[in-house]
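Structure request: PhnB protein, Labilithrix luteola.
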Amino acid sequence: MKHGPYRGENELPADILLLKVSTRDEAIGWAERYGKILGDGEIELGKLNEPWDIGLMPAPENPPLQMLLIEKADASTEAGGRTTAQKAALTRLKTEMTKAGVLVRSQKLQPSATAKRLVFTNNDLRVIDGPFAESKELIGGFAVMDLTDMDETLAMCRGYAEILGGTLEIDVRLVDQSDDAA
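Returned structure:
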């Protein structure tokens, strides 16, 4: 285990879990259990920035501690799967986390072969089709959007890029909707 701040090493996510916990140590305990199921691999655990963390509103009394657990992609997840035993164990753990009120949301992403990288330079867009090698830059944030198609996605991302000055990269990844997306 190492503590941040981090430099970019393997910033290609495979699975994202939003946890609501009482303490950082509780989140670490859940992350360790998740990691034991994966075996070799990398996960990252970080605090979710809340509106009060960035000055948009005053903090409520006893605010929740929400943590983002990110499983980093590897050859197995990029090939589209895990072992049957890992899927079953992850399903059991996520069920336990849900019953404990810890797991708020879980999103398994499809391999980067189905993704698009949007590169905005001075508001000009270049689209690169996946698959992608891992990025060496830190992820600046996540947005999970329920959109109808790629045209709507491009329009949303274009507007976001304009707000942020017109120069950035956005990776568009599809959420895995399959029945075995453990």
